[in-house]
Amino acid sequence: MxxxxxxxxxxxxxxxxxxxPVFPGQPSPTFFSWTTLDLHPNATTAFFMxxxxxTHLDVPSHFVKNGLSVEKxxxxxxxxxxxxxxxxHFKPGESLSKEELQxxxxxxxxxxxxxxxxxxxxxxxxxxxxxxxxKHYAGLSGEAAQYxxxxxxxxxxxxxxxxxxAPYDGHRVFLPAGVIIYEFLxxxxxxxxxxxxxxxxxxxxxxxxxxxxxxxxxxxxx
Length: 222
Description:
Radius of gyration: 18 Å
CATH topology: Glucose Oxidase, domain 1
Number of domains: 1
Strand order of the largest sheet: 1-2-14-12-6-8-10-11-5-13
Shape: globular
Structural class: alpha/beta
Order of helices and strands: EEEEEEEHEEHEHEEEE
């Protein structure tokens, strides 16, 4: 967290390292020295990992055949006003219905506008690295995802491994509608009840279905 005059910057990104947690079935990231200063004029590191490792985003081609890949999406889609919805009181492993989501939004006095980026706080990032991290987290149902698409949001994120659970109905609603999904976020508690602007730009990988990101939020101090 960095504070400047009238502004605080919040880092929303989890670290990625050798053997860091990955979604079941994906290879763990590997980093190794490629050149060292002992033998070369410069030091470099090579790495191997799936583009959906750690804090990352999903684009339409992740679930949609012939959907847009990372490099084809305008950069203004990856930033915007963000809203934080606290769903930490829901049971881990639960998929929120449309009615539960609407009730939560109303109780928290939140208004969703077109082009907002909606982020869900679950507290799940505190279990990053624990064996049950991928098994128990609150997510959205397909009907709840459709409700948000109808509000014309441009992005949705969560401090959990996924915005939904298998068979991933939320992904199948958000991505065809062009809504960018941000997963493995952290530190969302610092944004609760705050006016914030979200930035999460991908690397310009050709034909990729997602990308690691450095997600940050700019919070206006009152």
